[in-house]
Write a structure and sequence with these properties.
- By secondary structure, the protein is of the alpha+beta class.
- It has helices at about 5-20, 25-45, 50-65, 70-80, 95-100, 125-135, 180-190, 195-205, 210-225, 285-300, 340-355, 355-370, 385-395, 405-410, 445-455, 500-515, 540, 545-560, 560-575; strands at about 85-90, 105-115, 115-125, 155, 235, 250-255, 305-310, 320-325, 330-335, 420, 425, 465, 475, 525-530, 535.
- Helix content is about 45%, strand content about 10%.
- A 5-stranded mixed β-sheet has the order 5-6-9-8-7, sandwiched between helices. Strands 2-3-1-4 form a 4-stranded mixed β-sheet, with helices on both faces.
- The longest helix is centred in the first third of the chain and has 19 residues, at about 25-45.
- Bound molecules: cytidine-5'-triphosphate (CTP) and magnesium ion.
- Magnesium ion (MG) binds near residues 238, 239, 249, 250 and 252.
Amino acid sequence: MRISTSVGAAMASSIAMCRLRIRGRGSLLKCLQKVDTFLHRHIGTNLVAAKAESLQKEETDERDSRKSMYAVQEERQAQAERSVLISCHSRTNEKRFLKYLSKHGDINKYFFYEGYGMYAVVEFAQRESVASLLEEAVIPSVSHESTVPFKSRLLLLRNLGGSADSQSGHQLQPQTTVPINELIQRLSKEESIDRQVAALTEAYQLTEENSRLRFLVCSLLQDVAAAYFPECTIRPFGSSVNGFGKLGCDLDMFLDLDGISGRNKKLPKSGLSLEYQLKRANSERAVTQSILSVIGECVDQFGPGCVGVQKILNARCPLVRFAHQPSGFQCDLTANNRVAMKSTELLYLYGGLDPRVRCLVFTVRCWARAHAITSSIPGAWITNFSLTVMVLFFLQTRSCPIIPSLDHLRDLAGPADKCVIEGNDCTFVSDFSKIQLQSNTETLEQLLCEFFDFYATFAFNKMSINIRKSKAQNKPEVAPLYIQNPFETSLNVSKNVNATQLERFVALCQESSWLLQQRENLSPRGANGGNNTATPWGLAALLLPSRVAEIKGRKKRKREPASERIKSLLESLKNNNQPKKKS
Ligand code: CTP
Ligand code: MG
């Protein structure tokens, strides 16, 4: 069949636009249906099935070619080891700066950002270039105060005498998210809720540069820890690397001593051999505490740019917390935290299986933050990690599941994936291509509405959330919210959450579900007067704290109390007669 050039071009551009704008498979299909209608009208043919199939194949191919988290980490670590972090004046002349640094070797990549002043991250092509650059650097002699002559790859660019630099207006890479009001405005201008969710994800996710900076900070810290353990590695974990990190999230780090040479070597069966004499401690925990204690001290005393160091060694998971001023990261350094590394890898895998996973997690996290359901201050609130697991559970329990259970991922694992940590089975497949997904075509808009409904009516009083089984199970112990830890299965991830915080979450889910079903929130509402601001609608309206409060107030006046509404919702669910939702 031949399609006329103009119709073909129109169709191709529609598909290209849709693919550019909307990442979800469901959204793509929806978009294809539009193209199909267009084709029907103009040339009387139906291409959706064929095109949808080929798009699905492309998406599967893309997913299958994804690297494992460890492969990505290795690449990033190598980049970080070839990089330096330089504090420079905002008027630094870029050309002159690069020419000066290039004396030491080729530069792979560089960028500027603003923190406490302007900084440049420079990655050389070879590690030797960093050594050569450090060779040339000077230890400052300050007359009125003393300094510790600790050399690191955090440097200061001086421009003494000679010609003055005059450049301004460097392209600065953002390291923080846009303010919520600006985000709400951006979303209000989008044409669909699917687009809003995609735009929110784009605005909040970690940038390439921010990711690089995170690995560089780990690498700088590794140099400090190397004073005691020259062969140690410091790896990031948690949201910095699991795919759900938002600009500005904390930097969780893991001091890994497992790679120390000689560790896994066996003594020969006969003949002479030597082994290291080591100091013994009472327990694994005591070892972790003493390692973190000395490294924490070292970071505090000598770590350039590290301020506010706190050693929190009696926590369930001992850690050293500090702020890394040049990057602006709040850092948590742990040791012997292998299970958390595995849960990071698991989240990375889930996030890479279907683009809707990350989009929904970002949206829910942002929504929760906008309504103070979560907070960066430790407390009785639901944490981002718990929220992420709740989203995963919701996606596993769709009538056509979007992601599989952890038990299924364990069943697909190969011998190389086998992993048992302190008696906990942490085995699951790491190869994306081995995972077959079901063809769920729900749009992000549908999923968002369903998410709110799901948790507005979830039997939190009796049931626990279990992503290992993809099933709600009876709670093993009393707790307002029980989310089983995927690997340490006797632990509750959300043990910290109290009844009040859970009630707030449930009430907000109800309000948000209701709000999303209102006619005025279903489509763009156009400009607001002459000031070029758009009226918040859809997801943007959900993020407006005042809007939800206003609805709450109005509903309080006009409708039955929340407790009654939960009761009637539960009743209607029991009778298998859910309130009608928009499609
Ligand atoms: N973690 C865990 N069990 C918990 C809490 C945390 O296994 N009860 C692991 C998870 O892998 C989590 C990581 O530790 O991702 C870091 O925890 P945290 O910083 O609290 O969560 P993040 O996922 O990093 O989210 P945020 O952006 O809020 O830092
Ligand atoms: Mg974190």
